[in-house]
Amino acid sequence: MLTYFNALTDPNMVFLRYALFAGLLAAPAFGIIGTYVVARRMTYLAGAIAHCVLGGIGAALYCQARYELPWLTPMLGAIVAAIGAALLIGLISLRSHERVDSVIGAIWVLGMATGIIFIAKTPGYIDPMSYLFGNILMITGRDLLTIAVLDVIVIGLGLLSYNRMIAVCFDEEFARLRGIRTELYTLLLLCLTALTIVLMVRVVGIVMVIALFTLPAATASHFSTRIWQMMLFATLLGMISVAGGLSLSYGLDLPSGPTIVMLAGFFYLTVIIGKGLKNKLR
């Protein structure tokens, strides 16, 4: 642990500080939006959006290399793909007579397939593993600025629409009768989910992003009686998971993304096992 703190103050270890700042910045966003997703039981929808991100990343990398468009960064491609997938899934879920689970599954695999094809056709060598499993140690100052801007947008909209979001998450029919535009707020929630997923893809990757999105909120639900408490505890657990996971991965020479997710999973399993044992002992 001491070695890790020494590394954080080392002038040559800027990447480690960027990684920690990125994780801490992202934690409030996935604490707030993750709470909405868990309360609304939208984890499967969020999973589909997360996997569509690879399509946007692949398309951005391809266009950047083939057509020399340096402004078209992988993160910009991820944002466009995530919001596009969120709106498409949301509109189909609300308006279509198709089986929603089948449509979500189709969008999920098509997004992944599109990304893999674009990456395969991109000139030069592109390692998809850093996008699938994340590489928080590759965070740059530009990425940090983008994460901060997205964080402000997500947290601001999430808190400004707090009461309406709660109504839509827990009693959509009642909210509709009260005059709340439930479809609009469902789409807004999906778009905020998409932006939050983009924040976390660089932290833990596409494959494990849903774990970090839901585990802190699910753990926090066992200590909370109100939604705002759940958001606060989920944010704190997210920060602890990121900071602790980075420390463990540095000290034990482990991949940072999986270590962060493992720590978040450890907290969740400890809580539910502890509650189970407590109930048995009563």
Which helices and strands, and how do they pair?
Layout: H1 2-8, H2 14-40, H3 43-66, H4 74-95, H5 100-121, H6 129-132, H7 141-160, H8 162-170, H9 172-177, H10 182-220, H11 227-252, H12 256-281
Helix pairs in contact: 2-7, 2-8, 2-10, 2-11, 3-4, 3-5, 3-10, 4-5, 4-10, 7-10, 10-11, 10-12, 11-12
What does this structure look like?
With 282 residues, the chain is mainly α. The chain is 82% helix and 0% strand. Helix 2 (14-40) packs across helix 10 (182-220), helix 10 (182-220) packs across helix 12 (256-281) and helix 11 (227-252) packs across helix 12 (256-281). The longest helix is centred in the C-terminal third of the chain and has 39 residues, at 182-220. It is globular, with a radius of gyration of 19 Å.
Name its key features.
mainly alpha, ABC transporter involved in vitamin B12 uptake, BtuC, globular
Sequence of secondary-structure elements? HHHHHHHHHHHH
CATH evolutionary superfamily of the domain at 12-207 = ABC transporter involved in vitamin B12 uptake, BtuC
CATH fold type of the domain at 12-207? ABC transporter involved in vitamin B12 uptake, BtuC
Mean pLDDT value: 83
User: Radius of gyration, rounded?
Assistant: 19 Å
User: What is the β-strand count?
Assistant: 0
Largest sheet: none
State the end-to-end distance.
38 Å
Q: How many helices?
A: 12
Q: At the first level of CATH, what is the class of the domain at 12-207?
A: Mainly Alpha
Give the percentage of residues in beta strands: under 5%
CATH architecture of the domain at 12-207: Orthogonal Bundle
What portion of residues is helical?
Answer: over 70%
Uncertain spans, ≥5 residues at pLDDT below 50? none
**Helix-strand category:** mainly alpha
